[in-house]
Structure formats: structure tokens, C-alpha cells
Amino acid sequence: MNRLLPKYMKKVITLVLILTSIYSYAQQDPYYTHFKDVMQAFNPAAAGHNVGEICISGLTHHQWRDYTDDTKLRGTDGNPDGSIQDVAPVTYNMNINSIFNLGKSGEQFLGAGLSIVDDKIGYTKSTSFMANLNYRKQFQGGFNEISAGIGIGGTQWGWDKPDYKAKDALDPNVPISGANEMKMDMNLGLMYKQQQLGIGPIKNFYAGFSITNINQAKYAVLVNTADQQTKNLTRSYVPHYYTIVGSDIELGNITLEPAILAKYGLLAGAYKPQIDLNMTALFAETFRGGIAYRQWGNSDAISLLLGYQKDNIKIGYSYDITVSNIQKVSNGTHEIFVRYCIPIALVPPTKIIRESVRFL
User: Fold this and answer.
1) 275-283 contacts: CB < 8 A, separation 24 or more?
2) Within 10 Å of residue 334's Cβ, how many Cβ atoms?
3) Is 91:60 a contact under the CB 8 Å cutoff?
């Protein structure tokens, strides 16, 4: 079977690369500049870092800082009382995961993790909880690995801030009360890893494909409006498709870490791509620096990345320089990522030796 694997893997990799050419218009899932560090958030097959460790990561993403509902910037009069409210998107992500050995062969593993995502966009908010499980199979003594995973959880979505100040005091479209609703959510994912590609110094190659929002949950929350009526706020989630490819290129004391993420999904028959290109360099296995580029229809942002890692801790910071028209009302995007892995010692059960059946 091991002799047939490389030929089979070529077909898998080819399929993954073909899928990167398909895109969409929908942008309902949050995005991350440190996407290769939080793959578990959108691909359950990536849950689990190392055997013998429990890894906990946290990420905060503050998008388009100082973006407000000040409509004076958009050619109108602004809020009646002169107030300005921060409506910039904010995302928080936390992942907990580990890998467990299955059986005595040392070639089968179970990856398990929990992802929590809190995403605020304007006056709406969604909070997701996702339990991720994946089965991993290694070949050729661990040279190759395939994993398939499923994520099952729920997403709560609704109107979060009823204190919005409408320009027209009795605007029937503006809610004055908050409401939310919880729906089931499910993700699927595949990952392939290979220690070395055999192309120069390229090592630790990985490729993945995943689908989120498979069950396409539909929300309808009932809120009160300014004219003392009730109104249904609705939202329909659509599947999002992710393809990620990356590797390490070792150049002496420097390791280059290129990665590409393609994200797409169909919405109302329209397509609009989101592509993230990421190139970081790890110096002396400790300090990291790099640049990234995001395209969503048109150029969206250029990112600067800094990082540090030592032993069981990894820290990253990025600043997105907005290059779209939003730059007129935005001071860029900040993102901070931290991961800490806790070693766990699994002690095998003590074998009890009985010399005689008379002494039980």
C-alpha cells in the first residue's frame, strides 16, 4: 500500500489545487491574518498540534479601527444627538486541542479540539461553539499523513446593540430591542501532510480542504422597532469552502513559511474571491517577520507580521494596511495571536503480578 500512496497523493494534491480556482461572493465567516495558526477554526481535520500536548490558543482581530456610524463621512447629517458609535468588526477566537494515539501501531491518531468564535459586525453578533474530531493515518513511517475531520456545534446570531441612534427617530427599520437565536452548525475537513516534497529544501508540506456552514442555518429573530412594531431580522448562512496550501523552506538559519488560503462560497448566484497570500520568515527558530496580501474582489489589505516563539509558547501580531476605499474611514486592522502548549504525561497502567492464585 505504501508504494501506491505517492501516486494517490498526487491525485489528492492536484484536486486541492484545482479547488483553489473556484471562488465566491459570500463573506459571512470571519477572516484571520494568522489563518495558518488557527486552521482548526475552519477545518476540523486540523485540530490537534502534537501528541503529548494540550494546546490553547487565543486570537483577537480588530478590523478597520475607528470605523464608526458617523454618517457625516458619507455625505449626510449624522446622528440626531451628535453621538458616534464604534461599528468596526471585532472577532475573538479560542482553540483548545490535542492528539491521542490509537492502538499499538503508532500510525493512527485521534485529534480533538474545541473552537469558540465571537464575531461582532456593526450591531449584529454571532457566537459559535464547535467540537472538532478527526481521524489521522500515517504512512511510510510517518512520512505522510492523511486526516479527515468533522465539527459539530452551534451558532447564536442576533441583534446585539439596541441603542443605535437612527437619523429618523421613528424609523421602522431600526430595532430598539435585542434578540438572538441558536442553530446547529456543522463543518467537514480533510488535511494532507508530507515531511518533505523532494523539491530542494521544501519541508513540512500541508494541504487542506474544508466546508463550513454545511447545514445552511436560517435565522429569524423578532425585535421591536422605533414605531412600536415588531420586525423579523433574518440571515441565511451559506456553505463556505476553504483550500489551504503551505510549507517550510529551510535556508540555513532562516526558514521561509509561505502559505495561501482561498475562501469561497455561493451567494445569490454571484462569485467573489477572497485570497490570502502569506510569507513569513523564522529567524533562528525564534523570531518571525513577514508580509501578507489579501484580495477580495479588489485589493483589500497588505499586512505586516511579527512574531516570537520559544519552547511551548508562540506569539504573533499583524497590522493590516487597508488599501480599498474603506481606508478613508479606517485606521487599519490589528490582530494578536497567542498559543501555549501544556505537556501531558500519559502514564501506562501498572501491571499487577500475582505469584499464586491463593493470594488474590
Assistant:
1) 275/23, 276/31, 276/33, 276/35, 278/33, 278/35, 278/36, 278/246, 278/303, 278/305, 280/256, 280/305, 280/307, 281/254, 281/255, 281/256, 281/257, 282/254, 282/255, 282/257, 282/309, 283/253, 283/254
2) 15
3) yes
Q: Are strands 108-121 and 90-102 parallel, antiparallel or unpaired?
A: antiparallel
C-alpha 269: how far from chain center: 25
**Backbone dihedral region for residue 183 (phi beyond 0: left; psi -120 to 50: alpha; all else: beta):** beta
84-128 per-position pLDDT tens digit: 565 678 899 999 999 999 977 788 999 999 999 999 887 888 999
Q: Burial, 4: exposed, middle or buried (Cβ in 10 Å; 0-12, 13-18, 19+)?
A: exposed
Q: Which of 33, 86, 22, 71 is nearest to 300 (CA)?
A: 33
> 62-80 pLDDT, tens per residue?
887 666 555 444 433 445 5
3-state secondary structure 106-169: CCEEEEEEEEEEEEEECCEEEEEEEEEEEEEEEEHHHCEEEEEEEEEEEEEEEECCCCCCCCCC
Q: Quick one: pLDDT at residue 232?
A: 84
| Calculated CA dihedral for residues 284, 288, 291, 292, nearest 10 degrees | 120
The neighbour count for residue 162, using CB atoms within 10 Å, is: 14
Residue 175 has pLDDT above 90, yes or no: no
Could you tell me the CA-to-CA distances from 328 to 16, 323, 340 in Å, in that order?
37, 9, 37
How many other CB atoms sit within 10 Å of the CB of residue 296?
18
| pTM score above 0.70 | yes
What's CA 12's distance to the chain center, in Å?
Answer: 22
Mean per-residue pLDDT over the chain, rounded: 81
Task: Please name the residue that has the C-alpha cell 495571536.
Answer: 337
Four-point Cα dihedral 155, 161, 162, 167, nearest 10: -120
Containing 260, the helix (H) or strand (E) segment is strand 254-264
